[in-house]
Design a protein that fits this description.
It is built from five helices and two strands. The protein has a two-stranded antiparallel sheet. Helix 1 crosses helix 3 and helix 2 packs parallel to helix 4. It is globular, with a radius of gyration of 20 Å.
């Protein structure tokens, strides 16, 4: 990969690297879209159970899309551990395109202010997830603590 001095963005040199980045982007957006659909189905079930008006579900979907975009941005940037903001924005934009296609296919409603708010939520969520993943230390994982990070000394038995 070469470093572009103007933007400090590393462009992939080979077709393999470009293809791997696109596959990772599609996979992270697909996982984010699946998580968003499951969260939205859960929110719809709660709205039906509480007998809330259907119009409120659209406004509940925007924070859920931001959470799904955070996950998509995190999953996209986690293997790279660099370029968190740009990669997170890309995964948020890919998730927005998927959510928009899903919304148009399901509801056939007109897009207005909700679509703009959805765009902002997915871009901010994806960027936040990307930045969070890029700034994590490699050793941080589930169940890890400072006690487990200490260097252990192996003594040879003679």
């Amino acid at each position: 990969m070469t470093l572009n001095r103007e933007t400090s963005f590393q462009k992939p040199e080979s077709k393999k690297e470009k293809k791997a980045l696109l596959i990772r982007l599609g996979a992270s957006a697909g996982v984010g879209l699946a998580v968003f659909a499951l969260l939205l189905l859960g929110a719809a079930a709660v709205c039906l159970r509480l007998d809330l008006p259907q119009e409120r579900l659209a406004w509940v979907g925007i924070p859920l899309a931001a959470a799904a975009a955070f996950l998509a941005g995190y999953l996209h940037v986690r293997p790279l551990r660099k370029q968190g903001l740009l990669s997170g924005l890309l995964s948020g934009a890919a998730l927005y395109a998927g959510v928009l296609l899903l919304a148009v296919a399901v509801s056939r409603a007109s897009l207005g202010v909700g679509a703009v708010l959805l765009l902002l939520a997915t871009l901010l969520g994806g960027a936040a997830g990307g930045i969070f993943a890029a700034n994590r230390r490699p050793g941080e994982g589930r169940g890890s603590s400072r006690k487990n990070k200490r260097r252990r000394i192996n003594y040879k038995r003679s």
